[in-house]
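Ex. 9. Protein: beta-N-acetylhexosaminidase.
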Amino acid sequence: MAVTGWKSLASVLAVSMILAVPSAAALAAESSPGIQADYDRLAREMGVRLEVVDNHPASCPAGAEGCFLTTLSFTMPARLPGGLAADGFAIYFSFVNRLPVTESDVFQHQLINGDLYRLTLKPGARLEPGKRYDIKLWGQGAWHSQAFAMPNLYLTAKGIDARVIAATRPAIDRDTGREYLSYVAPMTDEAKLASRGGDDRTVWQTPERAFAAFAERGAADPADIVILPTPVSARRLGGAAIDLRGGVAPVLNGVTRTEIAAALDALAASGVSMAGRVPMEIRVEAGAGLGTGAYRLTVSNGRIAIVAGDAAGASNAIRSLVQQAMFDRRMLKPIAVEDAPRYGFRGLHIDLARNFHSKEEVLKLIEAMAAYKFNKLHLHLADDEGWRLEIKALPELTEVGSKRCHDPQEQTCLLPQLGAGPDGTGVVNGHLTQADYIEIVRAATARQIEVIPSLDMPGHSRAAIRSMEVRYNRLFAAGRKADAEAYRLVEPGDTTRYRSIQNYDDNTLNVCIDQTYRFLDTAVGEIAAMHAAAGAPLRTFHIGADETAGAWSQSPACKPVMAKTGRDAKALGAYFIERVASDLDRRGLKVAGWSDGLGHTDPKNMPKSVQTNIWATLFTGGITEAHVQANHGWDVVLSVPDIGYLDMPYVPHPEEGGYDWASRSVDTLQVFGFMTDNLPANGALIRDTYSRPQTIEDKTPRDAGRGVTGLQAQLWSETTRTDAGVDYQLFPRLIAFSERAWRKPGWEPAYVAGASYGPGDARVDRGAILADWRRFAGRMPAQFALLDRLKIAYRITPPGARIAGGKLEANSEYPGMAIDYRTGGGAWRTYRGPVAVKGPVELRTRSADGTRASRIVTVR
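Predicted structure tokens for beta-N-acetylhexosaminidase:
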């Protein structure tokens, strides 16, 4: 989907049968305190080590073509429970790639579903106290990052409650605030691990390479005006500074205080009181003939005046004022700003489904979005791994579908995918109540941000399917057969076999049964009611509509549908999208979806108003997809992964998080340099997922008068389990993304239909981009101060460093951040310039407020 896309790694495997294992309740009922204590001790004392050995081994076992090798090692404690084999001893673990082959003298593996696997003892095998057992795991694809490893391996046996193996629990680093897994071995062999071999040119971002990259960009320009995203026009005026320390008093015309209250609150939070004893008037006039979101801000002659097109423009002006007033320490120097957004759609997508993130985190991000003038929040609320929004008519969706635990029959929870562990607790579980969601919508609306809810379907729907099976079982057992069947999303006679991209065999809604549409209608109806209760009518609904796994071919219900419509099974996905889009249109709602699914529809069967999120990469058809769908007259929102997927790593390094199927490096400069109106031109700057420079062709030019509606940044959360991890992946890249959504740069060449661009193309002025970057970087220290105030745990870029002539030289991506160094594990010292050193040197960068540090890098 616009999601994790293991498309480049996936190959279809034969279907594995789900093991028939007693239910968690049955196991608990049979539990013995003595046996439980033995296994609890085993879980506490067992040693575990995961090591990524080789991403391009010389040969692969049969059935594991395109392989990489990891080893999983278990070291047994001095005492073991008696009768392990007879007890049905098993270890469950998550492995996010396909895992067709394991090699072990003792263990055998079996796929359960998705990324969940089970290790059991081979017939006749025994474990010995104190002995280490190594298992070779031959996965398909590659693991370039420690983030691909999942936590919370757990053990089970007959008659015991499942227990997490303590060595595999995640921990938080005290200095960086980042989550880490101590059982995962450091990845140090660049030759074997940095690339997939062959023509893969990826190398790790070492301190020496970072030093060269930062030096090539040049020193940041000193900033006097720090507003980001950069205004269309901003200049200093003459005269004395205005003292805001005594507070301000808004005088409003054409806009109510309620409409801009959130922006005024942000001004107050920056230290400018709304109830000062000697307040300075801020005159705000809205509806003055400017466009949506546009404004003029003038600070001159002891007065502050804002003229705006609407409440959004007035709020944008105040947000700019906040940044500048903080920088000027509330002694605001005269300034004139004229500003308007480039795109009407400036979005952020947050995945709450794979791993849940708290209401408090979402509210914090909404405030940050407003600070950087975003106006669309796309909330991904349901996927295979979780359903995250309360639907009162269907309580099982959150009672069952919002948590993952060890219940093999999935009557109380979903299977523990993505290393969720067996207990159904922890931050990756949870959901938004309706009251939570209404609060979120109200907070967004107060900041002129539209909330776009997303329930992915017909694929990526496992959480819904399994939850509705629990509902069916409950009502059927109560003798309410008709009620039970009303929302059942499984057709008993459907014998279709498939595997989704994420390795599920049961995650796709049947598009030929009435229950599917009844289910969607009920969910959308309640969501629309929540929006109404929040005072913000639902306008756009995102259906996902991507990565459908080839279901329905053997569905009895689909055979007459195929006969009637003349479509084969593969075309039924488009049938579903067209039908749902029409249903939403009749409700007065705009349909949105990911471009691959929408691309299979017949535009003549779609409503006039359609939003398509383009998520194919720039090197794999994304440009053609964008142009074709723009030519349909649809609203094209660029969500391309090699720029807009902020779950991708910042740089190629094993300690950077996120999947990397679309790009090995999405650093802030790459986001900053995105050319949105001339997509082929990006071929002059960026590289493909193998770090190769490639020409990007404009194979299907867009029609005159067609263009892009906006941009959307995405964060998918498979490897992001904490709220702090969300902050790290988003910031500071999201600020650069806001720059491209808001402002058209002078260095972007005009689009010419059919023109192709290769690496280093002279039509793209890299010198001008770097000059603009230096201006942007010079404004970032003020933004880090703002992020600190918002309590956003942004990524602190590790320093670049080298040793030349026996002296340590270091530099940083942004000005104003202190660099520390130490030798021999000694005390940290502040780097102030080249200094003589001996032996390896460790370095780190500290946050602007000094409370956090970057990951440590070593130079020799």
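Check your answer against this statement. The chain has five domains: 6-193, 233-339, 342-610, 615-700+726-764, 800-859.
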